[in-house]
Amino acid sequence: MSERDTFDRVFLGSERIDALPGDARGFAYGDGLFETMRVHRGLVPWWTQHVTRLVRGASHLSMPLPDPAQLEREARALFDDDGDGVLKLIVSRGGGGRGYTPHPDAPPLWRVSRHALPAPLRPGGLVLRWCDLRLASQPALAGIKHCNRLEQVLARAEWNDPAIDEGLLRSSDGDLVCATAANVFVLHGDRWSTPSLEDCGVAGVCRAWVLAETGAIETRIAPEALQTADAVLLCNAVRGILPVARLEGRTWALHPAVADLRARLARAHPGFAVDQEVA
Amino acid sequence: MSERDTFDRVFLGSERIDALPGDARGFAYGDGLFETMRVHRGLVPWWTQHVTRLVRGASHLSMPLPDPAQLEREARALFDDDGDGVLKLIVSRGGGGRGYTPHPDAPPLWRVSRHALPAPLRPGGLVLRWCDLRLASQPALAGIKHCNRLEQVLARAEWNDPAIDEGLLRSSDGDLVCATAANVFVLHGDRWSTPSLEDCGVAGVCRAWVLAETGAIETRIAPEALQTADAVLLCNAVRGILPVARLEGRTWALHPAVADLRARLARAHPGFAVDQEVA
User: Fold this and answer.
1) How far apart are CA B191 and CA B200, in angstroms?
2) DSSP three-state, residue A255
3) Are strands B85-92 and A250-251 parallel, antiparallel or unpaired?
């Protein structure tokens, strides 16, 4: 347990090791995948969905994965006090010599870590801004939760005003894509929509839950569509569904459809109950 | 010294440490920069240029750098046998909690490593292919030698035929940009050109040398322009200037202008003399 209230364990293949080796391709190239998961009473409500996304990403990058039974065992071991918190998993391609050529036989280098829950949701909902940075269009990586995240780092560094909770990102075409660490849904009348992720963005686990619950359409959304929206929400697998209260000049009161979705999520996964709420 | 003939040293700020800490932002997000340098008789011919590029990249990413005197001292220490080889430097933003927000006070996490020279140049010159992967347009990161390199990893994984030395990459618009680990110059008559790097690609140190020597223009280059080229060369700071012998169906004999450039580089930096040649 470090001074930062984080426990972590690092593995090379099935073997636990003390620290990341210097030749880690994750360090050199961001050649890895990650999952950030909410843990409630020692369990991850969306474990299967996280692992499924991980398997899909690894297949896309032709990257070997740890044994899934060991992965689950080690993840659980971090929360064997049945506590609440955040579980982060990084799986990276095993090391090897200098250069981009992957070494297909290298065992994966992976890390599980336990973190505290984030701060509670601001009363009324999130305050957002628009980021200047535009997300590049890269269909070969779109949707995947990979470790090439300099765009998000740059976007998050655009503000340090604690009165702002999150920043919305646009594609190079100018369309809405996501927040720096959340997906976004927009309500017009009774119709939910969310940006399609063919060119950029991450296919979030909570996004999939909201899609299934609302029948939202995946489409191009112009920034102007938020001005006329009846409600906007952000979501991710750690914080669940978060109402948006303000985006620059535009404000929203909590919409019944958002409150209803939040209640439905809390029934499905008690960790997301409002009395457990985190933002 | 590992089994892979690599020496390395890792530092957090000014302090040498044994291995990369698990919370390294370089591992989580590829939040770092790198330089790959040719060393000849214990010295890096383009040290100043590499450090200058590093400083520019760090400024762009608002990332603190190690003390330059210590950096140079530690790099030299890896080659205190006055040997030849490759020096790789990775400087990443210091760790901190989970999440994209950079911690401006965290000291940089950095690694210097020594590697063997790559294999000699194939007689006649390089054999190239076109890669399918298109480089995304991201002006906020273009030119910088940062550690978000999944595009290059994917592109290099497109072939494993040892008869092919390198792959050429196109932008999302279809223009020539670079090879997976080299810049590219194209000769028509007595006019050299090289792709402009406003949207993607890395501003190579050897590229800058070739630009200054040839007065090449930086411009958009369509793939078809290679069919009519009198010569094509790749270059990087490890291998110097490399003539291209074949690109799929098109072949080139060694052009006098390429031979002349190689001789000029060898006079400027004896490590790149033909009898030292590596590819």
Assistant:
1) 23
2) coil
3) unpaired
- Amino acid A253 reads A
CA end-to-end span of chain B? 24
Closest CA to A175 of A206, A204, A196: A196
Contacts of B8 in chain A (CB under 8 A): 22-23
Nearest of A35, A102, A15 to residue A64 by alpha carbon = A102
pLDDT attached to residue B4: 41
Q: What are phi and psi of A59, to 5 degrees?
A: -65, -45
Domains and CATH numbers, chain B: 7-115 (3.30.470.10), 126-270 (3.20.10.10)
Q: What is the pTM of this model?
A: 0.96
Strand partners, A109: A12, A92
Q: Name the residue facing A26 among B27, B34, B99 (closest C-beta).
A: B27
- C-alpha B138/C-alpha B151 separation (Å) is 12
Separation in Å, CA of B66 to nearest CA in chain A: 17
CA-nearest of A8, A34, A6 to A20 is A8
Note whether B136 contacts A138, CB cutoff 8 Å.
yes
Collapsing DSSP states into helix, strand and coil, what is residue A118?
A: coil
- B34 — phi, psi (to 5°)? -140, 160
Question: Is B49 in CB contact (< 8 Å) with chain A?
Answer: no
Hey, are the CB atoms on B156 and A97 less than 8 Å from each other? no
Residue A141 in contact with partner chain B when CB distance is under 8 A: yes
Chain A CB within 8 Å of residue B101 CB = yes
Cβ-Cβ contacts under 8 Å, B57 against chain A: none
Please judge whether B22 and A34 are an interchain contact, meaning their C-beta atoms are less than 8 angstroms apart: no
Which value, to the nearest 10 degrees, does the dihedral of the CA atoms of residues A201, B144, B99, A6 take? 130
Is the Cβ pair B4, A96 closer than 8 Å?
A: yes
pLDDT digits (tens, 9 = 90+) for B113-172: 999 999 888 899 999 999 999 999 999 999 999 999 999 999 999 999 999 999 999 999
User: In this predicted model, what pLDDT tens digit does every residue of A204-247 receive, in sequence order?
Assistant: 999 999 999 999 999 999 999 999 999 999 999 999 999 999 99
Chain B residue with Cα closest to A144: B150
